[in-house]
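User: Design a sequence. Structure:
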């Protein structure tokens, strides 16, 4: 994909991810499936192995940090299904990480 389309599609996918969370948070399976599709689309824009590694690392690290905070009753989720967090949150952390990296790269260039 050409370089000018990447920032637009990245922003579109990030926006769609947030809209999906706001509208589908009560339906863990549907939201997880929607975010999985959006994550695959986001990662297929650049097809970078480094981005895939970053996605996985940040997804699990972010979700682990949230699970840790939930253990100490800092906050909680209304519809958890995996160690105190909804499963879709893992994907959302990965999407957010890639969005931030690409946003940084866009402004750096």
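Assistant: Done.
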């Amino acid at each position: 994909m050409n370089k000018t389309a990447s920032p637009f599609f990245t922003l579109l996918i990030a926006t769609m991810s947030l809209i999906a969370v706001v509208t589908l948070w009560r339906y863990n399976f549907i939201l997880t499936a929607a975010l999985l599709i959006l994550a695959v689309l986001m990662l297929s824009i650049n097809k970078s192995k480094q981005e895939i590694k970053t996605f996985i690392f940040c997804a699990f690290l972010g979700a682990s940090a949230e699970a840790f905070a939930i253990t100490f009753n800092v906050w909680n989720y209304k519809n958890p299904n995996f160690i105190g967090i909804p499963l879709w949150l893992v994907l959302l952390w990965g999407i957010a990480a890639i969005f931030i990296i690409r946003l940084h790269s866009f402004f750096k260039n």
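The helical segments are 5-24, 28-46, 49-71, 88-108. The radius of gyration is 14 Å.
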